[in-house]
Structure formats: structure tokens, C-alpha cells
Design a protein that fits this description.
alpha/beta, TIM Barrel, 8-stranded parallel barrel, two-stranded antiparallel sheet, 15 strands, 15% strand
Length: 362
């Protein structure tokens, strides 16, 4: 079975090709945004994954959203994440930390009334869940050219913190309409300086952050996640093939650990970018988006991907690797507990062995 084959992702050797996708479960402390004891349990339960990618983790106090999301910009946050990585490693697991900045999607109610920042003063489409209830995304404050180095430094500091916290590497979240993605795509980036206009300029922020991360973790300890088909916040690009081909080419030249592409099988074949990107990016490619065991096995067997990431299936099945290996039935995830609650819907999904023990005692 292709999913059960061992492999290599940059610096790490993996016992299988099953990746736990980054999943923001909003279970961290508030307002400290530090992982707590249940977070340690949650990640350890899933340590059999070839690679765990942590929940998206804020690099800065200017990137804040709903309560319970994690961060990695303070000493106490580093110490709390160290408990997670130590426990995952003790369970023979591997874990990267996903780093992100919300950009224009940050919550002004949690910024002391300050406006969020973005490449251009263009609001995201939709609503944010503010303290007083849902409200439209505000028009953000466009970053001045001399303010961009501070953003790059925030990512650099977060990568240093992730290294100190014991992570095996970091994944840069250049997807889902957050700050790096806002710089990449021309619907949100209408700058006229070195960080806007051409494809090369719009990719500059990402690549400068990547270069800093390589200096900390080595090229093999850096991954990048992109979502060329995500348009839910009004984010799109006039020529995604040119944009993501350039990104893939530049990342390949740097020899990073992997490229993580969100591209569901349901995307029409004519719109898929994988056929163009696969020959360009020479390193391992993780594919994500609505995969089940059968479609994931096929993607690896036919060479479309080296690894496949699973989100909802890992929420409900901490022993997903074992269930795939045995062809066992899967627990059904409960969407009502995805982003709120305590242990319920977080660390109480049973493993196969727990189910067998419960049945034997009946």
C-alpha cells in the first residue's frame, strides 16, 4: 500500500506517507495562546503520522483572531510548545510548526482598535467574528515599504522560537487568504514597489521569509503550503499558473523540504495546477484536499504526490495510520466540536484498541 511506505521529507525520514494537516482547533489558553495539557495529548495521540503539521501559529501579537488560537512569539509560548514536541518525539513522532500572520483578516477588536495590516488597503470579503459579534472585515492599513522588514523579522523570530521549542521544521502558511497569500495574489496586492506588480515581486515576501527560515532549520526543515484555488475571501489571481509556477521554481531551487499543495480531486482537470507544478518542483510534494484512503493511495501510486495530508479524518481518528493499514472503519468527525470545547471532540475520539476493550467489557 503506497500510503504505508516509508519516505523522506527534507531532514526527516518518515515511516509512512500520511501527513496530519494543520488543524486550528482553538483549544489553546486564552489570552496566552499557549498549548495546554490537552494539546499535548492531542498531538501525541496522532504521533504515528508520517509527519504532523501543527495548527497555524501566530508569529506576532498583531496577528490575532478568535480565542484559543496558538502563537509562538513569547518565551512562555516557546516553553509550552516544547512540552508538545518533547512528548511527540518521545512517542517516536515527527512535527513541523506551521507559521502564519493573518494580515487583513486579523480582528481589530483584539488589536486594541488598530487596523490590521495588508499589502494594500483592500478589505477581505466576508465577516469576522469579533468580540461583539460578526461584522464585515475592515479595510486594512497598507504596509509602507519600510514596514515590510519588520514583518519578515517577525517570521524569522518565530522560526527561531520554533527551533528553540524543538520542532523538526516549520511550514510557512502561504495559503487560505492570510498575509503571505495576500502578497502573492494580485487581487489583494496592488502595490507599485518591490513587493507588488510582477509575479517575481509579489513572491518576494514569501521567498525572503523562506531564506531566513533556511538559515535556521536548513533547507530540508522548511515547507511551504499554497492554496491556488481558495477564493472564499475574495482572493484570486489573474494568472495563477504563472504565479505558482514561479513560486514552485524558486522553492525548488532552494531545495526546501516539501511543497504542500491544496488541490482537491474535485477541481476540474482543466483548472488543476498540479500537472504544471509537479515537473517544476523537484522536492517532495504533499497533496491535500478531500482525500480518502483510496484516492490518496491512487495519487501516490500514479506519481501525482509523494505524501497526502488528511485533516478531518485525523480529527476523528487519532490512529488513522493503523485504521488505513487494517482497512478498519473510521470514526465520524463531529463538526460542532471542531473549533470549540474542551476535551470533547478533541482528545476523546476512541482508537481501535479502545473500541475493542469497550466491546470486550460489554
Amino acid at each position: 500500500m503506497p500510503l504505508q511506505q516509508d519516505g523522506r521529507l527534507g531532514n526527516i525520514v518518515t515511516p509512512n506517507r500520511i501527513v496530519m494537516a494543520p488543524l486550528g482547533r482553538a483549544r489553546n489558553s486564552d489570552p496566552g495562546r499557549e498549548p495546554v495539557l490537552r494539546s499535548v495529548t492531542y498531538y501525541v495521540q496522532r504521533a504515528s503520522a508520517g509527519l504532523i503539521i501543527s495548527e497555524a501559529t501566530h508569529v506576532s501579537a498583531s496577528s490575532v483572531s478568535r480565542p484559543g488560537t496558538g502563537a509562538i512569539h513569547s518565551i512562555s509560548q516557546v516553553a509550552a510548545w516544547k512540552k508538545v514536541t518533547d512528548a511527540v518525539h518521545a512517542a517516536q513522532g515527527r512535527i513541523f510548526q506551521q507559521l502564519f500572520h493573518l494580515g487583513r483578516k486579523a480582528d481589530p477588536d483584539r488589536l486594541g482598535g488598530a487596523l490590521p495590516i495588508a499589502p494594500s488597503a483592500i478589505a477581505a470579503i466576508g465577516e469576522i467574528s469579533g468580540i461583539a459579534g460578526p461584522k464585515p472585515f475592515p479595510v486594512p492599513c497598507a504596509l509602507a515599504s519600510d514596514e515590510i522588514p519588520e514583518i519578515i523579522q517577525q517570521f524569522q523570530a518565530a522560526a527561531i522560537n520554533a527551533h528553540a521549542a524543538g520542532f523538526d521544521g516549520i511550514e510557512l502558511h502561504a495559503a487560505n487568504g492570510f498575509l503571505i497569500d495576500q502578497f502573492l495574489r494580485d487581487s489583494a496586492n496592488q502595490r507599485s514597489d518591490d513587493y507588488g506588480g510582477s509575479v517575481a515581486n509579489r513572491a518576494r515576501l514569501l521567498l525572503e521569509i523562506v531564506d531566513d527560515a533556511i538559515a535556521i532549520f536548513g533547507a530540508g526543515g522548511v515547507g511551504v503550503r499554497v492554496s491556488p484555488h481558495a477564493t472564499q475571501d475574495g482572493l484570486n489571481d489573474s494568472n495563477p499558473a504563472a504565479l505558482y509556477s514561479h513560486v514552485a521554481r524558486e522553492l525548488s531551487a532552494r531545495g526546501i523540504g516539501y511543497l504542500h499543495l491544496i488541490e482537491p480531486d474535485s477541481i476540474p482537470e482543466a483548472n488543476k495546477l498540479l500537472p504544471a507544478l509537479r515537473p517544476i518542483f523537484a522536492g517532495p510534494l504533499i497533496l491535500a484536499g478531500e482525500f480518502n484512503q483510496g484516492s490518496a493511495e491512487a495519487a501516490i501510486a500514479d506519481g501525482r504526490a509523494d505524501y497526502v495530508a488528511f485533516g478531518r479524518l485525523f480529527i476523528a481518528n487519532p490512529d488513522l495510520v493503523e485504521r488505513f493499514r487494517l482497512g478498519a472503519p473510521l470514526n465520524v468527525p463531529d463538526p460542532a466540536t471542531f473549533y470549540s470545547g474542551g476535551d470533547a471532540g478533541y482528545i476523546d475520539y476512541p482508537t481501535l484498541s479502545q473500541q475493542d476493550t469497550a466491546q470486550a467489557s460489554q
